[in-house]
Specification:
Number of helices: 2
Mean pLDDT: 81
Low-confidence stretches: none
Largest sheet: 4 strands, antiparallel
Strand content: 15-25%
Length: 235
């Protein structure tokens, strides 16, 4: 200690302080007074920039490289409707069978959203097309299969017998018979109540959609009578 004390001079002390400032205090000063743009990527060690060191809203769109944000990087429920641009979700971006029935809003699939010929027979549930779903006059004759309309599918047939019409000897009579209200003519004819051979049917045919007309000639020497009969269906 005596030897160190003998060699300790003012110059030695000041020299030691100067070295300390350069190596210690000087380095601390330099760390807080770095020039702009002096710290680049090579100066950063791995994992040096933690989440807490990133300023709010500092990572803008232009700072994210292409394909950097993968599906695994998105939190559950992170992509909401308001974040999707109009027309951004196209058919090619949808996985097969990804749109299930619960994902479709009520009344979301309108007529204009259905492609031509998209709804085929196999896509229609049994008994899905009820009477109320068929437009008026939509089922035309070409749409009916042969023998598709059976007698059991027709309404009850009503026979209506007209009053007796007398025909004088050598005379001709023409008369008509209408179907009851609410029914339409299916067929008709002449009924000869007395099976008289002298009565000759000159004509027997529909006159309107609900009326039958007959013309009868009496070739006999005395008067004879006939009646018209019609078969009508509910209109």
């Amino acid at each position: 200690m005596r030897q160190i004390h003998k060699r300790l001079t003012y110059a030695n002390v000041m020299s030691s302080i100067a070295v300390f400032l350069v190596l210690g205090g000087g380095a601390a000063f330099a760390a807080t007074q770095l020039p702009k743009n002096s710290v680049g990527t090579p100066q950063l060690k791995k994992n040096a920039v933690a989440t807490g060191k990133i300023k709010a809203q500092a990572v803008a769109t232009g700072k994210i490289k292409n394909q950097a944000v993968s599906a695994a990087k998105l939190a559950d429920g992170a992509v909401i409707t308001a974040k999707l641009a109009d027309g951004s979700v196209i058919t090619g971006k949808l996985a097969d069978a990804s749109i299930t029935t619960p994902k479709i809003a009520d009344n979301a699939v309108s007529t204009t959203k259905i492609a031509d010929n998209a709804v085929s027979t196999t896509k229609i549930a049994p008994e899905a097309v009820t009477t109320g779903k068929i437009a008026n006059e939509a089922v035309t004759t070409p749409k009916l299969a042969n023998e598709a309309v059976k007698a059991a599918k027709l309404g009850p047939a009503n026979f209506t017998l007209g009053t007796s019409v007398a025909v004088a000897a050598g005379a001709t009579s023409a008369s008509t018979l209408d179907c009851p209200a609410g029914t339409r003519l299916l067929s008709g004819g002449v009924l000869n109540s007395g099976t008289t051979k002298e009565l000759v049917v000159l004509g027997s045919h529909p006159n309107t959609a609900s009326q039958w007309r007959a013309q009868v000639y009496n070739s006999g020497a005395s008067a004879h009578s006939y009646s018209i009969v019609v078969l009508c269906l509910l209109a």
